[in-house]
Amino acid sequence: MNRPIFVTLILALTHLSTAAFADVRLPRIFTDHMVLQREMPVNVWGWADPGEKITVEIAGQSHSATADADGKWRVTLQPLAVGEPLKLVVKGNNQVEVNDILVGEVWVCSGQSNMEWPVSHSDNADLTRAAANTPQIRFLQVKAVGTQTPNTDIEQRWVVCTPDSVNGFSAVGYFFGRQLHQTLGVPIGLIDNSWGGSSCETWVPREKFEGEALYEPLLARWKQTESEHDEAKLRGDYDAQLAEWRTARDAAEARGEAVPAQPGINNPLFAQHRPANLYNARVAPLLPFAIRGAIWYQGESNADRAYQYRDLFPRMIASWRDAWGQGDFPFYWVQLADFMPEKPEPAESPWAELREAQTMTLDRLPKTGQAVIIDIGDGKDIHPRNKEEVGKRLARLALANDYGVAISDASPRYDHFEVNENKAIVTFRHFGEGLMDLDVPEIRGFTLAGKDRKWHVAQAKVISPSHQVEVTCDAVPEPVAVRYAWADNPVVNLYSSSGLPVTPFRTDDWPSVTANNK
Asked: pTM (2 decimals)?
């Protein structure tokens, strides 16, 4: 036989043999104990040999697909209803089964350390654990180092909520999900992909910054940092460690033992500040998994660039919505808490400006909401421990806006003000049955300024109608601007009748102290 023909034949037979026994594979977001989103189309995807025929079966449905030239395939399930646990069966040259699947509500929990903060480090952790035998709540934690290339898979599996598993899970996420479960009576799936200290820009695809003057200095700094490291070598060395860890992980899972800690890499190119790093590492591999929405707790790492955050934060939300392909899914966030020492006199504050940027996003994008927690922070700790109240305030937003539950959801917001002689009359919206002060009889947290733009502590009182506040100050006989809770750690006590704190605000648009920080 002619040798080139013989070699070609052997290679062809080898390829056919490999194809005949290629394994169908699902991403690890499809594992036992998972939760699928109810009442909407659900995507199921994976890999196989190019051209391989795939059949996906669940709850009486059967869908077929053919793997493309890259071995990728995808089907879309018809909407599923809450009921008994289901089995997902995927057939090709082999068969894969996923068991104990619940159908319910799926939410992504993301942000930095205050979202990552676990139940074990939160108030009343022992009581929380003792009551956490809740098999209809399921957890998935996404852990991966940053990357500039989108990941296609994750490393973790779904787990059932137990006193052990809840201990290391996001406290804000858990309390949010627990309230939804208790109110709606349906299974809840929580996907936590947060990373402590992460900057907002790391959660955004890098192309969303290219050609934008607002982000040129940021990208220039990162290009300089990138030039100082051998990224290819670092990535190669890390991938070798990761391969060894995956072998150990798979063996531990097969034996039903605890999985060893996933390796990390101490280098800025793989950390939580580089633009797009966490979008690629911890968001991209979730796509296009069906979700109801997302909750978010982040902003501390961007406070020094608060003015930029006015554009950055809505840009991030829009990029997620575009990538998920589900339209404008609900996106709710936690406004920054009070933190750092209290100051006796009014002062400018990057943290106040960051809160303002967060509030502005409510008017920039639809189906958004903000949980105000200016009253439950800790001046000495950037990680306030009362995560249960944070989760409940987020849950109010979801229950009222997405599930039709008749409850108060939004904190009162500034609407407009007018000057009557020496008095500033401030009108609010989202005030419930009215405004009220707590703890002490006088309202605290208001300041006034005149044309000289000098701020003074002011006196305030609720007037009729009860969604208005009268603000005065002897030092400001002709007020032109009002601020409320405008400080790193303001002393405030104004609430709606539902017990939700008034949203910090200012009526002026005087120069921002962070305007030039890019």
From this structure: 0.94
